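Severity: low
Component: inverse-folding endpoint
Summary: output formatting inconsistent between runs
Steps to reproduce: submit the following structure tokens with default settings.
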């Protein structure tokens, strides 16, 4: 859930930076800072999934989120501002953000399901009382 909130804020900050009046570094500073927070939370998600012994699928999904977040930085660094190829490469930054949302959603749903599956079953007597 924390990742979903941070990702929503990230989209807002991207729009905020896009219409900023300063240099790109200034306009997108909050976007960049929040991206770093997302990376830390994604890394913690891998740790928590592993410590909870939730299985390889959830750990893998959490790692996938972290990997895609790292890819965001790579895309931003390799795209050359002001050039057509750079703009095309940077266009994948937005597509990758959608992929992050999707993988984060899948991991959240799986985590919720695993929590439900781990709840102890209520005894029959308690249900009829």
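Observed output (run 2 of 3):
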């Amino acid at each position: 859930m924390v990742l979903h909130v941070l990702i929503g804020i990230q989209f807002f900050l991207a729009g905020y930076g896009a219409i900023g009046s300063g240099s790109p570094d200034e306009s997108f500073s909050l976007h960049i800072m929040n991206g770093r927070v997302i990376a830390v939370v994604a890394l913690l998600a891998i740790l928590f999934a592993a410590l909870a012994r939730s299985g390889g699928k959830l750990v893998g999904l959490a790692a996938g989120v972290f990997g895609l977040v790292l890819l965001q930085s790579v895309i931003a660094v390799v795209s050359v501002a002001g050039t057509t190829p750079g703009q095309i490469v940077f266009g994948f930054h937005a597509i990758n953000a959608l992929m992050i949302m999707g993988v984060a959603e899948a991991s959240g749903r799986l985590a919720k399901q695993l929590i439900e599956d781990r709840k102890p079953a209520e005894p029959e007597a308690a249900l009829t009382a």
